[in-house]
Amino acid sequence: MLAVVMVALLLAAASCSDFSLYGVMRGEIPGGTPQISPLAVTLVVGATCDFSASGGSPPYRFSVLAGSGSIDAGSGLYSAPGFPSSEILQVQDSQGATSQATATIVF
Questions:
Q1: CA dihedral 85, 86, 91, 92 (to 10 degrees)
Q2: Pairing assessment for the beta strands 40-44 and 98-106 based on DSSP bridges
Q3: 5 Cβ contact list (under 8 Å, min separation 6)
Q4: Which CATH number is associated with domain 31-106?
Q5: Residue among 52, 50, 63, 58 at smallest CA distance from 23
Q6: How confident is the model at residue 19, as a pLDDT?
Q7: Hey, where are the domains in the chain?
Q8: Three-class SS string for the chain?
Q9: Distance CA 3, CA 1 (A)
């Protein structure tokens, strides 16, 4: 009986707010912090890596905070520069919360 009451309360909370029950079940709690993945990666010069985000409040925006590589703001596809470097990448959710990752670029 307690489980039924808890599910009913969760459904009521989900229906009265700006987030979906499915999002809550996936761990996307409003006001939470987005998580970028992978957190750290080592790539050869010129390589690419798909960064992803979860949690927080979608949609997400990816960016390069430090370094010479580039990242597609919407998809998270990162392209390493043509020389060794250390890069700092960031994802920001629709509420302004952020998470950062590092990319080490080697020959």
A1: -100
A2: parallel
A3: none
A4: 2.60.40.1080
A5: 58
A6: 46
A7: 1-27, 31-106
A8: CHHHHHHHHHHHHHHCCCCCHHHHHCCCCCCCCCEEECCEEEEECCCEEECEEECCCCCCEEEEEECCCEECCCCCEEECCCCCEEEEEEEECCCCCEEEEEEEEEC
A9: 5
pLDDT for the residue 46: 97
Q: Which residue numbers in the chain have pLDDT < 50?
A: 2-19
**At 86, which amino acid appears?**
S
Quick check: 43 and 68 in contact, CB under 8 A?
no
How many Å is the Cα radius of gyration of the chain?
Answer: 18
